[in-house]
Amino acid sequence: MARAIDDAGTVSGAYATSPCSFVPLGDETRFLVDALRPAGAGRGSWVLVTVRDSGEPGQRHHLRERSLTAAQRVMLALACDGVENAWVEEGVPDAAAFRAAGADLADGVPVGLVWCATG
């Protein structure tokens, strides 16, 4: 995953991975999202995609678009490495739920999840 994030950031174009973050979810937060696992998916791990919180509506929209572009690049890099992955946006818990479970989101708010097959 780390290499996919690095690769996605080096692709030429208007957008890079910032201002979003990719937060791997551990055992303490997995229970929040395991019900969202793609149908037919085997073992895998979750990465939460967050975007920096902004109070200005136009800026929020722009930052969200940038984070979706970055997530798409990461997912394409994973696919090029032969790693099955899926995007999940529907039903993603809010920042308060992740923080209550111990996830370090810094100043980010959830945009979606990337599920990655692990074998």
Describe this structure in words.
There is one protein chain. The chain has 119 residues and is α+β, with helices and mostly antiparallel strands. It has one domain: 3-Layer(aba) Sandwich (NADH Oxidase). The protein has four helices and four strands, in the order αβαβαβαβ. A four-stranded antiparallel β-sheet has the order 1-2-4-3, with helices on one face. It is globular. It starts with a helix and ends with a strand.
The shape, in one word, is: globular
Reported by name, the CATH topology is NADH Oxidase
Helix content class: 25-40%
Low-confidence residue ranges: none
| Total number of beta strands | 4
Protein name: Nitroreductase domain-containing protein
Organism: Rubrivirga marina
Features:
alpha+beta; single chain; 4 strands; NADH Oxidase; four-stranded antiparallel β-sheet; 4 helices; 119 residues
Describe, in short, the structure shown.
This protein is an alpha+beta fold. It has helices at 2-10, 27-30, 57-80, 95-100, and strands spanning 20-24, 44-52, 85-88, 108-117.
